[in-house]
Amino acid sequence: QVQLVESGGGLVQAGGSLTLSCAASGRTSHSVHLGWFRQAPGKEREFLAGVSWSNSDSWYAVSVRGRFLIWKVVHENTVYLRMNRLNADDTATYYCAAAPWGPVTKPSRLRDFDSWGQGTQVTVSA
Fold first, then answer.
1. Alpha helix (H) ranges present in 35-118?
2. Sequence-ordered list of residues with C-beta below 8 angstroms from that of 55, at least 6 positions apart, any chain
3. Cα–Cα distance, 10 to 30 (Å, whole number)
4. Nearest to 40 by CA among 96, 110, 108, 90
5. In this structure, are residues 48 and 61 in contact, taking their beta carbons and an 8 Å threshold?
6. Residues 68 and 82: beta-carbon distance below 8 Å
7. How many other C-beta atoms can be found within 10 angstroms of the C-beta atom of residue 33?
8. Beta strands 78-83 and 68-73: pairing type?
9. Of 69, 119, 123, 125, which has the fewest CB atoms closer than 10 Å, so is most exposed?
C-alpha cells in the first residue's frame, strides 16, 4: 500500500487560491494513480482530479476543470492540487488517494482507490 499525508488546508477568502500537497510513501515505486477527493458535511465524497505516477496523464471532474490543477513532482514523491477562484461550495475536507495500476486507466470512483490520507480541511469564507 501507499501511505499518504495531506497538508496545505486552511481558511481562505472567497475568490482566493490554495495549494494542497500530498506526500506519498511506501509502494510508490510501482505504477499507481493518485487522486484528490473532497467531502463536505452531509455530502458524499467526490472525485476532483487524478494523475498517473508513471506517465503524463491527468484528468478532472467536470465541476472543477479549468479551475483546479493537479500535478506531481516525482523526485519529491508529492502530488499537488492548486485550487483557484474558491467559493463557499469548495468548503470541505480534502483527501488524497492512491489507486493501483490496473484496467481502469483514469480512475475516478471511490472503489478504484485503496489508500487514503487523513484529509485536510479547507474553509472558504464569504
1. none
2. none
3. 32
4. 90
5. yes
6. yes
7. 26
8. antiparallel
9. 125
